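hi!! sorry for the late reply, been swamped w classes. u asked for the two structures so here they r. pasted raw, havent cleaned anything up. first the sequence of the first protein and right below it the tokens
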Amino acid sequence: MQMKEEDNIPGTVNGTVMERQKGGVEDSRGCTDTLIYEAGSNQAAARGDRNGTGNRVGTGIRVLKRNMKRNGSRGCVTRKTRFGSRERDWLKGDAQRGCVCLYGGTVDPQPPASGPQASSTLQADLRLVLCSTTTTVEELCAQREVEGLYLQLHGDLLRRLDPSERPLQMVYDYLAAIGYQDPLRVQREAANSDLSCMIRFYSECPVNADQQERTLLTGVFSVRKGKTQLHKWAERQVLLCGTCLIVASVKDSLTGKMHILPLVGGKVEEVKRRQHCLMFSSAGPQAQTYFVNFDTLADYQRWHRQASKVVSQTISLVDLSCYSLEEVPEYLFYSQDLTHLNLRHNFMSLQGPGGLLNLPRFSQLKSLNLSHNRLGVFPESVCEILTLTELNLSCNGMNTVPAQIGNLQSLQTLSLDGNQLSFLPEELGGLAQLSSLGLSFNNFPHIPGVLDRLSGMDRLAMSGNRVETLELGILARMSHLKNIDLRLNGLRWVKSEALEAVKQVTQLDLRDNHLATLDLSSICSLETLHCQRNQLRALTLSGFTLRTLHASSNRLTTVNIYPVPNQLTQMDLSRNLLEYLPDWVCDSRKVEVLDVTHNFLSELPSRLLSSLSLRKLLAGNNRLQRLPDLLDHVPLEVLDLQHNKLGELPESLFYKALNLKYLNVSANALETIPPSSQSEESLSTLQELYLTGNKLNENCAALLVGHQNLRVLHMAYNQLLSFPASKLSKLELLEELNLSGNKLKTIPSTVSSCKRLHTLIAHSNHISVFPEILNLPEIKLVDLSCNELTEILLPDSLTATLHELDLTGNCSLLLEHKTLNLFSHITTLKLDQKPAMTTGDSLGSSTLWDHGYSEMSGQRNKLCVSVLAVDRFGDSVEAAYGVFDGDRNEEVPRLLQCTMGDVLSEELLHSSVDSVYMSNTFLTSHRKLGMAGQKLGASALLCYIHHEPSELGSYFSLTVANVGSCQAVLCRDGQPLPLSKVFSLEQSTEEMDRVKLSKAIITEDNKVSGVTCCSRLLGCSYLSPWVLPKPWVRTEPLCSQDEFLILGNRALFERVSYQEAVCTVQAVRDPRAAAKKLCTLAQSYGCRDNVGAVVVSLHIGEDSCTCEPPHASTGTEPRGPPPTPLPVTAPPGDPATPSSSSGIASEFNSETSASEVGSEAGSTASDEHPSGPTVRPERRCSLHPAATLCAPAGPGSAGVGGPHPVLFQRQPSCATFSSNQSDNGLDSDDEAPLEGVISNGSKLEVEVDIHCCAFQIRSGPAASPKDHNLDKTRSDYPNGKMRRQNSVVVSATNGCLLAVCGREISDLKKSPSTSSLFGKKLSNGSVVAPEDSHNLIEVALEAPKKKSGYFTAPAQQDPEDQLVVPPSLEQDVREQLRGQSPMVPGPPPPFTPPSIRDPVWDHPHPPAPMLPQRDLAPNPIPALQQEVYDTAL
């Protein structure tokens, strides 16, 4: 078939296409300008057959067909094989062209996504339709010969598209709405199959078996009427629809008389005398009975299940919500007893047998729910259902309400929320029985005047409108109105022009407005007032009937209430500017709950604490210096006094407040605590005691003994030197103990008497002996990180309840093989690995940044916070850190943790604009969540440290992007600098306005549709367009005054302020210990949720500069790229490449965990290779990289390229290698355990951190044209990723690094020894380069055994002349080298202790490799010098 020019879409195409069918049968037919491609092929099948007779004028549509398997969110067709070259060229011609993925409807649209069956479930046939944004549904249907197209958003409802709608434009609009801006990127994303989890088109409506079962059951079965044997069995058509069983009078037909059996309140029972038989009975004294005998067990169970639901109802209710219905089943009209019908979240139409025009056929219908149906107009036919008492038409985009609404004289509840209404008809005022009216989130500028006539209305909801002024006189005229909701209106004034009292209003909600003053003294019957999050400076109320007052987050300095509110029981005045409490607070007789946190109170009245009604007092974050003594017994149960300046507590606190169960006095200056009683016998009922951040010593332990009901004890960050063993044994009911940040050397052995203990946290101490806690029956979490443990004495068996053990930060801890086996069942086991000593470290150059992190589950059963931490991202002078908080789900944070680093690495290749690559990283990660992101979501924060691409010699910059409530704070000059934006409806006015404009329903707890308080998240795509994934992006240049960076989730910064977080990290300095302390403080301050923190210590400044002044030389001096901790050696022609020393290490964690660890896996060394002197290039630091790199051209010399982007390689979280020679974690040639290796019997488990596998790639000589073909060989190595930079190819497999010269790959591939990524696999899982005729490497496996595990290699130039010399021998070496002639040294051999030193290396060698750094004269490299492979074992 000859194709037309791709730019000319309309055309005539003759030919026959071979289309692959399900059973393998091929059908040959003519198509209209259609190219149908077989699965996995980009060649037109039509090219092989020219015998077709089709000859029509085309419509400008191309179709590519593929059968795709569903595997998570990815299809089996990759992006490369989707289109042929002609199709790609056609798409490139215009950004308004694109691809629509069109699915068939032969299977369920959303089969289960979990389990092995999901990956093998065949998805409906997928056709990729090439069209333009002007192509309509009508054109597509005409071309495809289908009746219509269906749209599915976020795996949810299916809607039939109108013929005039344009599918491709809908996709483009959707992508633009979530944040994509570049038209070409939008075009590319639209063709991605992953997008089908968010927006998908079907050529026919998919069949949903579950929906059919719940809406209509039908079949031909044997039926008998009545309980007597006089009636005979007969074959009849039987239906179960709505609330009735329907039996036809004739077989196989639904014509004639129908027998209706109401089932609500009746019975459905199994008939045991007959197989698969059910008895259906109606309710009432004249009940009728039908027996139905089913053919199969499946039919019997299906009918029994559905009928049981109907008979169990107390009212005649049919729920057909969320079924994508366009009309109700016609047989539903037989249910004439129907009183409640729920059609919410459908696409109901007016016309049709089951359309809205026929709903008046229900003669007894009382409640009708038509919300979220995209009606657009008020269905007037509803006004003919005169029996209605409740009508819900919310979220339908209606602009007007018809006058016929006045016909519904029985209407009591009317919900019109979430529409576009701005006025109401006068006829509405005639609804005398209307008691509740919902007008929230419409466009009303004021309270409609027609409401004055609604004499029966007692509840009015008008939140989210545009009412700026509230006239209290209007409320006075509504004689029955009691409850008014005016949240989110932008209210600025509340006026009371007359002295007329408003007597009937009892509840008023004015939250989230712009009120500066509020005088409601004329509302004399007010019982409940909500006025949080305004700008109130003055508040005046009437106290006659006031019961509840919520006025937090304002600017109040006082509150005037007259008379004294003797009915007041609960008052919230937190987050204001109160310096004292009004007198009437103490005079009020019934106050039970008082919250005055985050004010400026310096004292509390004595009468307040002596109140006989107060049960809960929250007075934290004030300026209290002392508390008044308690004069009498008080009923106080909860007392929170954290973050004050208390030096002591009242002596009588515990034996006067005998009901006290919760006490939090953290972050004060307490040196002791009061006794629990005046005698030896204590009556204390205290259960939770938080004493963190005080000045308590071990003497306080004796005072805790009296609290024998204590369940939770936090004494972190005090001055405890010990905890008396005899005192701890008395706390037998203790469940949670936190002793972190003290100076403890041991945990008493009597902790074993605390049989209910499930959490022990004692990090950041000096503990050297592991406590006897592993045999406790309920122990779940043990955190002994940052201590001085050396060994662990284990019992014979561990309790199965232990699921988390943190032993990081214990540098001297050695775990034996037996210990690791006992720990194998622990879900999360965190151990340390020693960092690798890099070349840069040996020279004393400081690390630019390092990090520590902490994740704590709190009192939740699962951890829903994940951390991404990559200290060496990209070219090793970049870093990436992230925090992901899923709130109630752990799936999305884990997915983001594993994918976002890779996505960022890929996006950096496409753009260098921070706002572009960061936004696209978030949007792509959002798409990659697949089905998991449809209903679940997470807050996300990503920080990327990098150089500005336009200023290579500049300092580093920090780019921060976030959605949701995770935050980043930079410490600059000792002060916090917030870098992120909190996308919460309560904290972002812009986001609140945007969500309101899109007509979302915001519930009273400020959550979008009652789901989340965040307006931007990754995931939760079903809440689009209200909740979007587009991030906030900010770039901040870093300077020497920047000390560290703090990343945390919502729970952390809700409890710990920015300033306190900065001061905390400054006092600790060690990043890991600082992150631990932040999370511990948050928990001690009352956080019961998941909390996560990352602390990144920054060392960016002139003191970390390692530049050298340029040396005088003739010609152009070569400059090498900055030294990196993880170099890969290029061929010797590159004079700027040091030798390789690299490795990977990880945290031992059986869960996917983000941590940064390092262990040296191997190295290479080379013998001396004499050559002429050469010039050592100027060494550059990472702060001042060379702007240009060049080298003199000449015989034997190679050009030096600039630094290139590097491979960010994500390794599997765990790789398991079998060992035939060792079962104890030792290499056969090593005498020390391999770091990063966990031994488990005959199997070695190597934990590879998925975030730290970043490789630095050095440029080599210019590649020949034939070398470019090597790019095509990437897919030949499925076990590792490979990227080529000029003539260097880097491959990573199982955590091992391999660098080879590009021109040698073809030879290496021919060698049998290169079957696993060009290397031989040793018994310990290492991979080394093979022997080659051009490479004189001695392979470690075949070389003479060396205890050090290293092997020799030919010399190569080392311009840095970096040496590894023991400090004790440094002076001797320098003396021996004096007077020696300059020679070009090879890579310096790593220092090996004399006990295990290679015997060959002990022989006398020329001292050239040990030369100090000296300037050498340039000299061409000899032509006979061999190519060298540098391999990291």
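now the second protein. again sequence first, tokens right under
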Amino acid sequence: MAVYFDHRLNTDRSGINVDTQWYDGSPILAVNTYSDETGGSVNLFLDEGEKLMNVPLTRTCQATAIAWHPTKKILAVGWDNGELLIWNEHDHELHESLPLHKTSITVLGWSSAGTRLSSGDKSGVLMVWKADAKGRLQQNPLHQHHIQEPLRIMLYRPVPPPDPNNDIAQLARAAVSGDESALDMFNWKRGKNNARGGASFGAQESLTFFVGGATGGVYFVNDAGQCTQIFNADGPVMTLLHYDEKNLLITVTENMLLTQHFITPEGEAREVLKVKMSGRGEQPTIVWAGAGILATALGEGVVRMWDLEHEDNFILSLEGHSSYDHNETISCISYSPEKGTLAGGTNMGNVALWKYSPPLGGKVVDGEMKWKLQAPATVEGPIKQIRWGSSKHLLSVNTIANVFMLNEQVMSAGFKEQTAVVQYGPSSLSIEMFSNMDHHDLKTDVQVKGIFTTKDALAVWNGRRVMTYEYSSDKTTIKAAGTFTTETMNVCLYEQNVYCIESMKVQVRTHQGTVKQTINFSEPEGQPVSIDVCGTYLVIGTSIGLVRVYDLSRREAKPHSQPRNLGEIIPGFGSIISCKCNCNGSRVSVLIKSTQGTTDPKLYFWDTEVDQVSYFNFETGRGEQDDFPPEQIEGIEGDTNDAERGKTQAAKDIAGRSPMTHYWDAHDPKLVVCEAKIMIDAFNKKEKEEKKSVSLSKTMDDGPVEVMIVSLFSTPENGILIQDSFPLPDQFQTLLGIEVPYHYFVKKSENTSDDDGDIPRTESSSPRMVARRTMRDFVGLEDSDKNTKDAMLNFSYYLTIGNMDEAFKSIKLIKSESVWENMAKMCVKSRRLDVASVCLGNMGHARGARALREAMKEPELDAKVAVLAMQLGLKEDAERLLKNCKRYDLLNEFYQSVGEWKKALETAEMYDRIHLRTTYYNFAKHLEMKGDYSEAIPNYEKSDTHRFEVPRMLFDEPEALEHYISLHKDKALHKWWAQYMESTGDMETALQYYENAQDYLSLVRVYCYCGQMDKASEICNNTGDRAACYHLGRQYENQDQIKEAIHFFTRAQAYFNAIRLCKEHGMEDQLMNLALMGRPEDMIEAARYYEQKPGAQDKAVMLYHKAGNFSKALDLSFRARQFGALQLISGELDERADPELLKRCGDFFMENGQYDKAVDLLAIGRKYWEALKICMDQTVEINEDLAEKLTPSKDDAGIDTMERVKILEAIAEVCMHQGEYHLATKKFTQAGNKIKAMKALLKSGDTEKICFFANVSRQKEIYIMAANYLQSLDWRKDPEIMKNIIGFYTKGRALDSLAGFYDACAQVEIDEYQDYDKALRALGEAYKCLTKAKMNDEMLLEERLAQLKNKMALIKKFVTARRAFEENPEEGIKQCQILLEEPDLESGVRVGDVYGVMIEYYARRDRWKAAHAAIEEMKSRVSNVNIGYYVNMRTVEAVYRALDIPMGDMSRGKMNGVMDEEDGEIVEEEVDNIYGHDEV
């Protein structure tokens, strides 16, 4: 709890206080005051209310506008006469601007960095001034505008967020790592005109602002000083606010019309929303109260809140706190984002405070539930203005007559030896004497900032003065003992001594201030910051972490041990927050702040006797001896006993916290109690790891407890262990101390009444400000003697460390049943079920012992402990344990057992849906027992048991029951009621409800009973209800109306009955149709009838066939010679048919020449060889389906693998014989004979499949077969075939065949294209292949190699000779002539090609005679030569024409498809890549 110290400011009492403004930095408040006598003035005040003197801000007129510089102590003041003054508080200088404003200045505003000051007056003149570092304005304004309306309000646009691309720290790191773009940003070289080339760094300044006028105009002034009207509001502008996150301008007019405009970077406005706000006041106040939340005070008893982000409205009222009057109204408000507090001033002088505290765990609550109303601060007079401000977040309160400065101060409190003192006002103390239950109120002369009490004396101080008081021996009176002045912020008392922390020392004084002893601290030891007394020992902690303990039992304080510097051994040590010692001075607990400024989650313990430091980590919930990393803890937990698991669970209960306060017991040296609050970061991290399931409406789990009270045992032998932990009750503010058997708490201000009946285990006559709560282990033992208390404390300690022998030994002399009950309750916290069973036995609690024994089957330890807690009446503990172990089924049962049905239903709906209907049923039973039938009925309905339970419940109230049934459309209920009415003889009502229930059987039954057969027939015909039709059919049969009976039996699909009647009464015309519609049994029954009837065997065969009795149908077909039926039936036979039956059918088809059907049946009957023989002999075509039928299954037990292979090959041979080569290939492949499969495929001539099969088979022989086949094709025109031939020969390693193929390719190149170069390359490839080939006949191989070599040599000579013509033609002629003399030239080179080269050469050189001689020589050497094959016919014609020789039959050179170049083209395929490019 916090209290507010108020300072009344020394303002002019004869005047009124018009306005107050805070400076954003150090606390300085400017107060604008006006008096008719003295005129106007602006005074400055410090945080303690001290007035700054020599501030010459006075004029005869009123100051109408004031504005503080954003970063410096410079104040701008505008006056009613148009003057503008600038006061520099730092330099104590006053500056006056030129008197350019002729009317009252109404608005003033500084730019974000203070380089511009804008001023506007009542006549609409707006000026922008440039200011220097001292606030002095230039002589003339930078910009001046004349707006045609009085100016009401000014708002500077906020500074835009910094550009992350220009973050100088990130750019520096990027530049160091070599980022060129970052280096460019740091390019500070000056370019042309001496301009810098780099980026601009540092904070930007916002020079743009908005101005609102008295007639609704809203204007925007940009960086260049241009002023434009961006929109016009509907009424005088009262408030301008900027929504930074969404770049929205919020405008509110005097008639409470709110508009939102989106503002572009250029200053243009686009309307987003316009709304009329509710309420109306004389001087409404509208402020931001958090991100996107508008708060409005309209002089009502509430503050209206509008969440713009979530479009939610709610109100904050003064209800819920006794300090406010129901007629109180809120006139002004102000919000502090740093404190998260909204302050509202009321007409009765109260400052209402709402603290923003959303629930932990992301729990969804209404907006008003996130704000907690605090105790008010009070001033004199109605409040007209209220403002938060300054770096200390002070609050100024203006009541017009007075101005108050309020400073929030944490409430001081102290407790020692059953005496508690709590501050509840700046100078008001509440004193509680628990020894005799007396209560005192004390008013001091100072505003209290600290309290320390003992059982005999009290000390209070305010930092400058210390006052001490003494209690009388009977505690009935309090008297002042002394007062003295000293600058101290911490004081302790012991007997008649006052211990004060002063500068670098601790002074020991008397109550009157006389110094008796001084404890000095050197500079290296640090300034004392914490002091405490427990028993006869004093502990002092310094700023650097040095801790000293003194013994006070002697005349002077003597050192109890050597000092210890904790700052040297604690990692991350920042400073000491507080240090406390136990009653015998052996242990000191220290709470520290880390170097990051946060509270260390570890509470440190210094053992002064052995000089060792240990800790308890509230973040993990474990002492140093157990504080292992999480992965180690998980590994240990798997194989431990209940005691260890209990310790682990207790650690989890308090984990994720940090300590706030710590107190030692005044008499037990090992017991310390701490107050620990949740660590938000740790909780959020845990939330991410454990994703909670959330209901659509609300979360079941209320989230973590914000503050917990944790008791610890600290001993050198066993370290620090958890003794107990429980949440801080809602009605308590904070922990005050411990003294066995009580915890002492400060109560919240709204719970300070004397009636504490609602506080569990608290004194009935508890004082007003402090309450005590009995410790868990001592409930019922509050008034016991010291030995019993010591025994219980020892039992608790030994139970905590797990020493059961010592635990039971410590209480063996205690016979009280309540003691055993307390010990059993201890076992709930310690989770010691073994101890609990002993305690229950000593208590004689048979039911609890049985429940605990039955609960041992539960797998979770917490579930077992929860059962124990239930039996002991610890409902809160049971609930917490079941939630903790997520046993929501048991939690549901628990809520039901204690009558908390709302929680039970919530639990079932969200976590235990499998028992949801059961829960509704049990709740309905509970309500029924209470007699609340109206509430029980909907719960029976939700449990889906209302059809039975509601009639049972309302059976004794027929009218209510009938009313319930008539309102509901449930058919089952209507049917039940109809049956009940029928039983009472009320047939009309029964028929009505049967009809509502659509129970046609019952309707027909009742109508038949009443003799209304026509009505019954109508219902059956209209509805077709089978049960109703059957019943009516039976009725007609009983009345011998056979035709009608058969009709309704047919509609009921009771064909057996209809057939029976037809047979009995000879109605054969309907019998067949009925049989075909009926079941197989009905068909067989009718078939038997027809079988006995002459001439109706065909119908019998058909019915047997339809019923699936093929053997009977076929047998009857053979006997009756029904061949058509026989064929129809045999077509539906499958392998499940009788083999003998299949054979008979097969023989029948063979006799009738229907061989294909015979083969089909033999295949079904697995007579494969016989079927294949018929296929071969009778040329029955085998298709895909028949081939599959003839193929035995691999799972066929009667045929082994070899037999199956033989059958497959036989099928393939038949397919080959029939020309079904693809099918043959498939069967050969299934038989595993790929060679024969390939042969079959080759016969099919399917080149694509042949290539595919060769590639997937991967056998040498198949590759060679495929290549041989491809050679038979026209491979000369298809390069793809050539590639496959080469590839298959290569894969099949048939290099001799491949060489032959290359040789053939070379010959094709010569014969068809005369391309000797390609031919030579092909022969080279052939030679390579042949050299690698392995042949049985070595002589033949050598001969082939020699032939190839000779052929290649001839071709090479010819190629060389042909090339020689380009450089040395005569040499070419010579080589050709030599080549023509080769004896076996034709084996490699065509003679005509040699002559052709020579003739072409001679013709080009016009050597016509030589050319003619070559032609004649070629004709003589090559018989029947066709010259056109070797020489272009134009060349030949030119030769003969030049020599004037007739060509004769030479003109027929164009023959055999040989064309010259003009007649067409011969397309030559590019196949170079096939042969390679190596020349041999």
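hope this helps!! also noticed smth abt the second:
DSSP finds 48 helices and 62 strands in the chain.
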